[in-house]
Amino acid sequence: MRKIAIPPVxxxxxxxxxxxxSQGAYNLPVRRQKRVLTGLENFLARDAANYRGxxxxxxxxxxxVDYNLSKNIDLLRAAGMEIVLAFAPEHGLYGHENxxxxxxxxxxxxxxxxxxxxHHLSMEMLRFLLGPSEAxxxxxxxxxxxxYTYVSSLKQxxxxxxxxxxxxxxxxxxxxxxxxxxxxxxxxxxxxSRHISAFPSTFIYNLTLxxxxxxxxxxxVSNVRLRVVPLANYRRDLLFNETMxxxxxxxxxxxxxxxAIVYSAVVMLEGVNLSVGRGTTKPFEYIGAPWIEPRELARxxxxxxxxxxxxxxxxxSPTFSKYAGxxxxxxxxxxxxxxxxxxxxxxxxxxxxKAAYPKFRWDYRGGRYxxxxxxxxxxxxxxxxxxxxxxxxxxxxxxxxxxxxxxxxKHLLY
Length: 414
What we know:
The chain is of the alpha/beta class.
């Protein structure tokens, strides 16, 4: 059979195309650098021998993997540690639960470990269960937002360990939103909730979980034996795709890094009567409702002057969550790159929809507005109801941001 010679230029172009395609995130540039090493990888390489034979409680989920996607529990056991218990945050050990798992615990036969659900444990029960452990290892991929409940799980574990002799080892991972800085209101009195608004910070806090542990341990709890195993080759301004680490969806509705970035800008819409695309193939990238005409909404949002985003009119039918089984009109939100203020984007989008659609409603639950707990304040909603611009809201929360920033800077690792 005659062999066909491929011209060198065509071959090089093909290689370039494959390299670009492998990056996946077409709106996210990649600055070439050394691959980031996670706290898990650094712990196994440098410190694991010191914990051989020790009884370990592991707080983790499906995101607790190394670069090769090997699970932390398997790696820790291979290094000689005895995993006596595991604790899972929201979405469970395997990250497939869309709502809170209602079971207090279950036996995972494949991993041969009892897994407790942190969301159903009282402080007294958690402290009791951790008692026999010689160390607690916390290894979860966070999102860098106060309402994303994994940082509340860290706080819960630190509160339980306060005053005990048990060491807490936090294996650090990148903050996917570190390039955004800090944003939103500092958590105000009266707007605490156990999971979505428990951590004392601004809405976007620009800390890795390791840094969050250092900050919380220094400012809100005393006598926690904390050790943070840091990342290597990491910078705060790196986009997640620049870390060269695999994107393991930290929760079911954040399948891609782009969806996670858009999530930061639209999560406040969970506090109103719009679908945010849960139950579709584009969670948080689709927003809408049965009473919205797509082209009209796309024109409205395109006129808001949000340069980091584009809006395409769509119809979608959620399979669960708000408006399940109903046809919704709305938009597909495209992130076009660059830094932005998630609070400004959400404020302007909600304000525009509120003014344009008479059927708009705030989500009112149990005598409280859900958006107030997401925002950590009622100023977000009240300013909007009064017709005030985002600049006035930003001015009212600025001092709280400055106070938090002064504190957080003392505990930065990167």
